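Key idea: predict the complex, not the pieces.
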Amino acid sequence: MWSYTFRRVLATIPTLLAVITVCYLLLHLTPGGPFDGERKVSAAVLANLQAKYHLDLPLWQQYLYYIKSLLQGDLGASFRYADWSVNDLVGKALPVSAAIGGGAIVISLFIGVALGIVAALRQNSLIDYLVMLLGNIGGAFPSFVLGPVLVMVFAIGLEWLPAGGWDDFALRYMVLPMALLVFINISTIGRVMRGSMIEVLGSNFIRTARAKGLPMRTIVLRHALKPALMPVVSVIGPLAISSITAAVVTETVFGLPGLGKLIVNGAANRDYTLVLGLVVLVTVITVVLNLLVDLAYALLDPKIRY
Amino acid sequence: MSHNKSLRVAAAAVALALAGTTGFAMAAQVPAGVKLAAKQELTRNTGSEPESLDPVLAESVPANTITADLFEGLTATDSFGKVMPGVAESWKQTSPTTWVFKLRKNAKWSDGSAVTASDFVYGWQRFVEPKTASPYASTYGIFIQNGKEITEGKKPASSLGVKAVDKYTLEVQTPYPVPFMPSLVANTQLAPLPKATIDKFGKDWTKPGKMVSNGAFALKDWQVNSKIVVEKNAQYWDLKNVQLAKITYLPIEDHNADVKLYESGENDWVLELPSGTYDKYKAQYPKEIRNAPFLGLRYYSLNNKDPLLKDVRVRKALSMVLDRDILAKKVTADGQSPAYSAIVTGTAGADVTSYDWVKWPMAKRVEEAKKLLAEAGVKPGTKLKFAYNTSDYHKKMAIFAASEWKSKLGLNTELESLEFKVLLKKRHDADYQIARNGWNADYNDATTFLALVQCDNDQNDNKNCNAKAEALIKQGSDTTDQAKRKQLFTQAVKMIMDDYPMIPLLQYTAPRLVKSYVGGYGKNPMDRYRGKDLYIIQH
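Result:
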């Protein structure tokens, strides 16, 4: 397994380089530059700004310069936020996104799996329909509708929680955004878990277990859960990636200082270094999470060995 | 603000500027009978994360709002736009191109050291220095002797026309008469800077715990994309007139999220209402809705080099059929007023011009416009291309304009919604036919708006040029007779506007919600409200 992990990590390097190169070119091809503002700066000031950020060099030299700094762990200076380096900005946004997105995914995994199991065991009962309804609501309503509804009810109506904002990982600011992400994620996890559990419960080895007279609790937890989790593990990777790195709507609705908003603003401001830095980060997160998913398969399925 | 009142404010500002001054009543005085709340804390949304808290690198409204609380220049403007003494207690124009500012001896940095004339010399030189790359260097720097040449790298920063005559006397040389100097130096790009701190910390000098500032407030906390907190600066020279103990600035971009925070009590100040909600909130919160016009112009740029639009008759026809009254009352419906000039109401240094046809009935205007198009050989069905940046507000206005041109002149408009940076690029490169545009004054003088229509000016997206008007502007800039200057500028504006280089539409207002317990909110023509002038009323 270790050699497999090592090979996978090694394979990340060309992926990363390709992603950076394509992104670098796309950013520079996009019309409008970082210093195009409502107030057009004079040619002299533009030249000064470009010199400050090395934009006066030929593109290939800028690219090499960027790669060189990247190898030294320096993501460069932000074009937009003059007082911060990209390392600073990413370093501040990542923990927020990881706490909200990561926390939400762990909670949704437990709730989603539990709901899926309950629905599967009571197939076509009222509980099943309720779980499915919940799942469909979470899937059908976009977060820009659900988010403001949560705010209206819990912040403005009941005044239990703040309508948004962030204060150094204070729990009360984290509850609503996490609740929104959990609600959206459990709809997927719950539905997948239900379907998969129904299928597993109908398989031969479960029938054998039943015939032996094992209690249902043991059958589900000891025999059915592991194989039924396989499809959930497949969806959890992409869900975790989007919850952590692309929760733009959630971050906008609740005014969170996370990665999603940073990447959208970075692109809108043509903050080349910031966008590239975030792309590097998102690529690394994606690769790591995908690797974890693959390793989890081996734990769940005895047929898989690395 | 009524027309007359705003003129009076502007006139007062100019009069102050000209007369030189001592012994003002200070701002932030709480009216008699108003009871202050025990907790003097304000939370206001500034609309986005500031790009920098270094005053010379600040460019956006959010950044300038915060730096204006952290730093104080030679002068400052109060909540009504009146020029007040800042670090300078008095000033005088000693020759057409020389200003002398006397600094107060009790002005201090937040570390307790004295603010001296050499701090201004250092700050201003750093401002125009090419290495600093301040986006405003070419906007304000040009009014100081050699500022333009320094920004262009042709002269050293030490040659800038600013000199510390002694510890508390600053002498400023200008390349030509700059009558609005006292208003100009209120901008924090021209604030003094703490050399020792900047030398010590470099780029990090703007961080909490490191920043030394001289304004009414000092930096306490900065959580990127979350909030910035400042607290009363105990060393500030006018401490007794500062009521707020703490200000929290939020960087909320989403207008709906901004209002939600306001309604749940976590924000006292909504920067901008969501599009189309002004009437709703006006009815819902009649005591909290605030709306005042400021020195800003919404307009449509016409590309004067475009094959179709290079004919003045076509440009005139397009402008005269747009019903600004309907646009203001029904389409945007947020208290803005129609505009027909490049100069807006309240601007010092030139009068607002207008057109004869403004008073005509619409039918007559349409008839005239049709005639002009026929003379220019433009047939109904001709296609126009209109570019705007993606936003509900701009879209609504664009659809209105397109329908006006279609229904009244039979012209077909293709609307193109672009990402903001793409529109900016197209506008700057004159790669468009008609484009949405807007401008907020940088300082209260006609020259800030004249830039939009002057020959070869960086801000002129229309690419128009009227040589005769240009000569009048030059003549006006060189004269020291203020009445003459105003008359020449007004004449030039009229001359330019008769070329129809652009379509002025509306004068901006700032419709927003501010809690009724926030006192000191005035009608600032620049829409700038310093924390020093605000206070929390008992509630």
